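Box 4.2: Ligand-aware structure prediction
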Amino acid sequence: MASNTLSTEQQQRFVCNGFLVLREAIPEDVLESVCNEITNTLPEELNDFEKLASGPKKRHEWIETEDDSPFDKLNQHLYKYASEIVGDKLNPTTPLTQISARYPTGKHPGSQNRPSPIEGVYHHIDAIDNESGNLQPFSVGVGTYINEVAPRSGGFCVWPGSHWHAAERVSEHGMVALQDVDPIINSTNAPFEVTGQAGTIFLYHHLLVHGGGVHLGRQPRLATFTRFLREDIGDTFKDSIKEPFKFCEGLNMEKCHRH
Ligand SMILES: O=C(O)CCC(=O)C(=O)O
């Protein structure tokens, strides 16, 4: 595990908000090779805006990679940060990397002067599969922006603090509470949209409510998502839902009190 990459203040923010944004976290050569891989994998011609705007119908391309090796270097950098949260039990060898491209929709939810980042956005918690209702064992998610993401351009949206409310609702109603996130976000802060240059990364807790934001821009939003697992996930993942930081041994919890 790399030591002292995250400051105490950054650790506190992760505990309090359930996510943490780090800028300029990935070297340019690594970003460039991931960008080439994504460009070759996506079926669309990414530089042709007119074509992109008139099709495809699907405005969100979500690809689970079969071969993770093109993302090895990226994941090594991400592991450095994620293991500072989860600790030495975080498994470096089993990340699942996904490519997530969001294309401009041209739709202005909310009013034209004040488009909302989230209206109509599918928001959820990754700790549960909404269709099957099964729990999904993962410890910490890390998203990486491969190109610049301006406001209202398909940025990742989170509900800060929703991981605490999710855990509270699980203790009151059981795991089924995770399937309907609206009561969870009704009692939390307004959503926050992550924007930033290529190389911006965001780490998020597996109970945090999130979704991809609206896209009024002109360029596709390119990102990868890696979900790291613990080595002992089979024994721990249910408890980690009731006690959100029980298995985050990398954090100095004495300094990270809930605010
Ligand atoms: O593409 C995005 O920004 C959202 C991805 C997402 O919802 C997820 O990781 O579960």
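In the box above, the bound molecule is 2-oxoglutaric acid. The first strand starts at residue 19 and ends at 22.
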